[in-house]
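Colleagues,

For the teaching module next term, I've prepared a clean inverse folding example: a structure given as tokens, and then the sequence designed for it. I'd like students to try predicting residues themselves before seeing the answer, so please don't circulate the second half yet.
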């Protein structure tokens, strides 16, 4: 079965139930020695820094994101500093980052709205967050979880692919996958689920030529069973 059909709910049927999903998460965590509670990328960041760093992280490695975020807040520590620097100043600091001009525009635009419409406080509301420039569902979920400690399902490219291949979701649409994951996986396993699925997606469950033979959950995976 080719990778082009991986995300097709019409081509691959059979939804995964809660028990199997939890088992899959446990097996992946055990295999790679990971846990959601060990995620430290956002450690020590307030909601605003989580927001900015997640905007920067789009199509950028974690190490590069961390360097760029540290450099930006070293140069411009607060929201007022960001606004005074403007898109040109922020863009200059982020010049080594992909799409730095667009990201600078989003960061300055979002900051302007936060200061002007929310009293300088990042809104603790998904709708208000996704109304900000450069903020989609993933960024909003990161802010809610890591900035405010609110349970949220985060769906990136890896998580979306793994959730579809396992059978948790039947759609390649991020919003549909998020809803399927929320309804299938218990809230107290969401942190582990994100880390497990990202790890599996980066190493074994690759977009092309996935290593199903080396996958710890191949026996639970509808895609793996059909290969």
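(Answer key — instructors only)
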């Amino acid at each position: 079965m080719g990778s082009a059909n991986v995300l097709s709910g019409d081509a691959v049927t059979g939804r995964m139930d809660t028990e199997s999903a939890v088992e899959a998460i446990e097996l992946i965590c055990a295999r790679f020695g990971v846990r959601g509670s060990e995620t430290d990328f956002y450690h020590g960041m307030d909601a605003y820094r989580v927001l900015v760093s997640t905007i920067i992280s789009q199509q950028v490695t974690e190490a590069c994101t961390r360097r760029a975020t540290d450099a930006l807040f070293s140069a411009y520590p607060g929201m007022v500093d960001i606004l005074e620097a403007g898109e040109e100043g922020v863009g200059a600091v982020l010049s080594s980052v992909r799409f730095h001009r667009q990201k600078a525009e989003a960061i300055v635009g979002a900051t302007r709205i936060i200061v002007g419409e929310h009293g300088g406080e990042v809104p603790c509301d998904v709708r208000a967050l996704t109304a900000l420039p450069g903020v989609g569902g993933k960024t909003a979920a990161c802010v809610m979880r890591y900035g405010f400690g609110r349970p949220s399902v985060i769906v990136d490219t890896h998580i979306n692919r793994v959730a579809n291949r396992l059978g948790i979701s039947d759609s390649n649409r991020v919003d549909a996958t998020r809803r399927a994951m929320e309804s299938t996986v218990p809230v107290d396993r969401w942190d582990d689920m994100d880390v497990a699925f990202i790890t599996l997606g980066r190493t074994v469950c690759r977009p092309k030529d996935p290593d199903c033979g080396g996958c710890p959950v191949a026996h639970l995976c509808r895609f793996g069973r059909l290969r």
